[in-house]
Amino acid sequence: MDDLDSFDRKIVAVLANNGRITVTELAQRVGLSKTPCQIRMRKLEENGYILGYGAILDPERLGEGHIAFVQVTLSDTRSEALNAFNEAVRHIREVEQCHMIASHFDYLLKIRTRDMANYRKVLGEKISALPHVAQTSTFVVMENVKDRAQ
């Protein structure tokens, strides 16, 4: 973000809070006229600062209020094994986030499911079946205190 000026940073901040804001209102909030604001938005999109726009959904209301974090340790961490795991984990709908970690384990996954019974099924049938998984350890969320979407 070093090549962004103060207007670009304001545009990104406003859009992060409300991606549905009109260009006219956005321009007013950041102190630009409509056309320069549109041009800046387009450049931010073209340069990959803005990846897209989407709705923020309520997982509780959609029946996916159970959150678990899973530490995954692989049996093999050579590039081919990592690539196989990475490709396979992208296809599991319940995996909301997957991060390769520099620690005593290899990956940290955020899983969203309906309830504990559904989570156990996802763990047993999907996560444990991923390529090269040697061990998992689960941490169940008791309360979601802060989420970026909130």
Q: What would the keywords be for this entry?
A:
four-stranded antiparallel sheet; 37% helix; alpha+beta; 2 domains; 150 residues; Alpha-Beta Plaits; 4 strands; Arc Repressor Mutant, subunit A
Describe the structure.
One of its GO terms (molecular function) is sequence-specific DNA binding. Residues 4-65 form the HTH asnC-type domain. Keywords: Activator, DNA-binding, Transcription, Transcription regulation. The chain folds into two domains: 6-46, Orthogonal Bundle (Arc Repressor Mutant, subunit A); 66-140, 2-Layer Sandwich (Alpha-Beta Plaits), CATH 3.30.70.920. 37% of the residues lie in helices and 20% in strands. It has helices at residues 6-17, 23-30, 34-46, 79-89, 116-127; strands at 66-74, 95-100, 107-113, 133-140. α1 packs across α2 and α2 packs across α3 (34-46). The protein starts with 5 loop residues before the first helix and ends in a 10-residue tail after the last strand. The mean pLDDT is 95.
Which helices and strands, and how do they pair?
Elements (H helix, E strand, L loop, with lengths): L5 H12 L5 H8 L3 H13 L19 E9 L4 H11 L5 E6 L6 E7 L2 H12 L5 E8 L10
GO molecular function: sequence-specific DNA binding
Keywords: Activator, DNA-binding, Transcription, Transcription regulation
Protein name: Proline dehydrogenase transcriptional activator
Summarize this structure briefly.
The chain has 150 residues and is of the alpha+beta class. The protein has two domains: 6-46, Orthogonal Bundle (Arc Repressor Mutant, subunit A), CATH 1.10.10.10; 66-140, Alpha-Beta Plaits (2-Layer Sandwich), CATH 3.30.70.920.
